[in-house]
Amino acid sequence: xxxxxxxxxxxxxxxxxxxxxxxxxxxxxxxxxxxxxxxxxxxxxxxxxxxxxxxxxxxxxxxxxxxxxxxxxxxxxxxxxxxxxxxxxxxxxxxxxxxxxxxxxxxxxxxxxxxxxxxxxxxxxxxxxxxxxxxxxxx
Length: 139
Fold this sequence. Notes:
Elements: H1 4-10, E1 12-17, E2 29-34, E3 37-43, H2 58-75, E4 83-90, H3 96-107, E5 113-118, E6 129-136
Parallel strand pairs: 4-5
Antiparallel strand pairs: 1-2, 2-3, 3-6, 4-6
Helix pairs in contact: 2-3
């Protein structure tokens, strides 16, 4: 008989667990699927080696972030069309208009609810924004 802990782990799909552990002292996963829910950790405009895309360019950074998010969601059996909530953290609240087109291009007709927060800095010194998401897989 499975213990409640084993049953709990069986219902979870972890995506990119410890992805940056070899580069940074981190302890998190890029995404976790539990049932029909997918939780995507805050994404920066970085590649697998933490190289930033689009220094000084919020549109390029947003596109890299949404591409990273798309790949994590696909690994979980989801898509950007399943995203129901976004949290956007920006270093300048005025950036929202500069990332709107990238959001339209990636999310199309899907308009997830969102929260926009201005912060003093992010995990990468040249990052202008970070975005996390929650998706509900539609079957």
